[in-house]
Write a structure and sequence with these properties.
Elements (H helix, E strand, L loop, with lengths): L1 E2 L12 H10 L12 H9 L13 E6 L6 H7 L1 H7 L2 E6 L3 H10 L6 E4 L2 H10 L9 H10 L2 H6 L1 E2 L2 E2 L2 E7 L2 E4 L1 H7 L2 E2 L3 H15 L5 E3 L11 H14 L2 H8 L8 H14 L14 H4 L8 H4 L3 E5 L21 E4 L9 E11 L4 H10 L2 H9 L7 E2 L12 H10 L5 E4 L1 H4 L2 H17 L4 H10 L5
Parallel strand pairs: 2-3, 2-4, 10-11, 13-15
Antiparallel strand pairs: 1-9, 4-13, 5-6, 7-13, 7-14, 8-11, 8-12
Keywords: Signal, Transport
InterPro entries: Bact_solute-bd_prot1
Protein name: Extracellular solute-binding protein family 1
C-alpha cells in the first residue's frame, strides 16, 4: 500500500468573485455612450460567441433534470452568459423523481423543452415510446459535439443512427472518499489493490470497533431512483472481477444478468455492504443503507468521524458541508477504487445528455450552447466547490477549481485506464432504471438473497 504524504494542494484556478466578473462582462446593456465605452466593448467581445444564436429576447426555455440542491445552483448560474447575451430566460427544475416523472410528462404530452437524461438506456426507451415528442439534435449541437467530443460520447446520445442528446458533464464513479488527516493520524495507507482495501477495512475494525466506528458508510436513497448507488458498486466490481469484455456482454445481454460471473461480483459487493462489522458508520445497521439518502451517505467522514470510507462518484464533492476543503491535504479527498492488482485499473464513469422536446429556435440554440466550450467553461467556473468535470475538449483545465475534478480529468484522459460507461445507464430502462434499482434496494433493505435478486433482474429484461 502507498503511504499518504500530506502536501500542499493545487491552487484554485478560479473563484466566486471571478465568476461574477465573467458573468457581468457578458451583459449587453447600453452604457449610454453610444457603445464606445470600454465596458461595452468588453461586453460585446464577450458576447461574440453568442451572436450565432440570434436575438432571443422574450423567449423562455424550460430545463428538467435529476440534479437537485445543492448541485443545482451551479447549473443555474452557468446559464447566465447565455441569458445575458441572447435575452432568453432559462427556467430550471430539478426532481428526485426525474426518471419516472419525465415519462409521465411525456405520456401526458407535457414535456420540458430540454431534459438532462443520465441514462442512454432511458433515451432509447423515450425514442421508441415517444418518437413524435423527442427532437433530433439541432444543427448547432451536432457541430459542437463533432468538434469538441470524442466519437464515443456522441454514440451514447444516438439511437438507431439518429443523434438526439448532447453530452453534458462527465463523472468518475470509481472513487473512495476519506479523510487524509484521519488516515495519517492512524497510519493508514492508500490501498493499491482490492485485497489491500479489504485488509484496510479489517484493520479499521480491529482498531476502532470498540468506539462504534466503522470502515464504511453508505446511502442508496434517491427518491424514485433509490438503489442506483448500489448498482454502481456492482458495476465497479464486475469490472474488477470479470473484466471489460464480460462487462460489455452483460450490458448488451449477451450473457444473462444472473450469469455466475455477475454473481461473483455481487458477492464481493456484499462482503462490504452487507457486512455488519464494516457498515454503516454513524448511520445505523446494514439495512439503514437503503433509508439513508446518497447525499447523506458519506457525511459521517467529516461530521462525526464514525466512518472512514465512502464509495461514491466525483460529483459527491458538492454534498459535503459548506466550508469543507476537498483536497489531498484538506478535510476530505478521494482515492481510486483499486483493482485486483496494480496493473489492472478499470474505471467506471457516467454523464448526462441534453435531449430536446421542442424545435423552437431558442431551444435549438440552448441545446447547442450546452455542447459548447462557452457553457463548459462557465459551468466549471460556476462550480468553485468542485464535483464537476466534462469530456468537452474546449474546457480549459485551469477552470477546474477542485483537486478532485483535476484528478477526474487526469483519470478520464489516462489511456491505461479501462473506461466503461455506467452499465445501468446503458441497459433498457425497464432494467437499468427499474428492476436493477429496486432489486438492489431489496437486497439491502430486506436482505434478499443474491440469486433471487439476479434472477428477478434477469426476468425484467425486455424480450425484444
Amino acid at each position: 500500500m502507498k503511504r499518504i504524504h500530506r502536501r500542499r494542494g493545487l491552487a484554485l484556478a478560479a473563484s466566486v468573485a471571478g465568476l461574477g466578473l465573467v458573468l457581468t462582462a457578458c451583459s449587453s446593456g447600453d452604457s449610454g455612450d453610444g457603445g464606445t465605452g470600454g465596458g461595452d466593448d468588453n461586453a460585446s467581445a464577450d458576447c461574440e460567441a453568442y451572436e450565432q444564436y440570434g436575438d432571443l429576447e422574450g423567449t423562455e426555455v424550460t430545463v428538467y433534470t435529476s440534479i437537485v440542491a445543492p448541485e443545482d445552483q451551479p447549473h443555474i448560474d452557468s446559464y447566465k452568459p447565455f441569458e445575458d447575451c441572447t435575452g432568453a430566460t432559462v427556467v430550471y427544475e430539478g426532481s428526485k423523481e426525474f426518471e419516472a416523472q419525465l415519462l409521465v410528462r411525456l405520456e401526458a404530452g407535457n414535456p420540458p423543452d430540454i431534459a438532462y437524461i443520465p441514462q442512454p438506456g432511458l433515451l432509447q426507451t423515450i425514442v421508441e415510446d415517444f418518437p413524435d415528442q423527442i427532437v433530433p439534435a439541432s444543427e448547432g449541437t451536432v457541430a459542437n459535439v463533432e468538434e469538441y467530443y470524442a466519437e464515443s460520447w456522441k454514440g451514447y446520445g444516438t439511437v438507431d443512427g439518429t443523434f438526439y442528446a448532447a453530452p453534458l458533464g462527465a463523472n468518475v464513479k470509481s472513487f473512495v472518499w476519506y479523510s487524509p488527516a484521519v488516515f495519517e493520524e492512524n497510519g493508514y495507507e492508500i490501498p493499491e489493490t482490492w485485497d489491500d482495501l479489504v485488509a484496510l477495512s479489517d484493520q479499521i475494525v480491529e482498531d476502532h470497533a470498540a468506539e462504534g466506528k466503522k470502515p464504511w458508510c453508505a446511502g442508496i436513497g434517491s427518491g424514485d431512483a433509490t438503489g442506483w448507488p448500489a448498482t454502481d458498486w456492482l458495476e465497479d466490481l464486475v469490472l474488477r472481477t470479470a473484466g471489460g469484455d464480460v462487462y460489455d456482454q452483460w450490458v448488451n445481454h449477451e450473457i444473462p444478468f444472473n450469469d455466475p460471473q455477475i454473481a461473483t461480483a455481487l458477492g464481493e459487493v456484499g462482503s462490504i455492504l452487507k457486512n455488519p462489522d464494516y457498515v454503516n458508520g454513524g448511520l445505523g445497521d446494514v439495512s439503514s443503507i437503503a433509508s439513508t439518502t446518497f447525499q447523506d451517505g458519506g457525511l459521517p467522514i467529516v461530521t462525526n468521524g464514525l466512518c472512514f470510507m465512502h464509495r461514491q462518484a466525483s460529483f459527491y464533492a458538492a454534498n459535503f458541508p459548506e466550508g469543507t476543503t476537498v483536497a489531498e491535504d484538506g478535510d476530505v479527498f478521494a482515492f481510486y477504487l483499486p483493482g485486483p492488482d496494480t496493473e489492472t485499473r478499470p474505471l467506471l464513469g457516467g454523464g448526462e445528455f441534453a435531449a430536446a422536446f421542442s424545435d423552437r429556435p431558442e431551444v435549438a440554440a440552448f441545446q447547442a450552447f450546452l455542447a459548447s466550450p462557452e457553457w463548459n467553461n462557465a459551468k466549471a467556473i460556476a462550480t468553485p466547490g468542485g464535483g464537476w468535470v466534462s469530456a468537452n475538449s474546449g474546457l480549459d483545465p485551469e477552470n477546474l477549481t477542485s483537486e478532485i475534478d483535476q484528478l477526474s480529468a487526469t483519470l478520464l484522459s489516462d489511456t491505461s485506464q479501462e473506461f466503461r460507461f455506467d452499465a445501468s445507464d446503458l441497459m433498457p430502462a425497464a432494467v437499468g432504471a427499474g428492476a436493477f434499482w429496486t432489486e438492489m434496494t431489496a437486497w439491502i433493505a430486506n436482505d434478499k438473497d443474491d440469486a433471487a435478486v439476479l434472477d428477478a433482474i434477469e426476468g425484467a429484461w425486455p424480450s425484444s
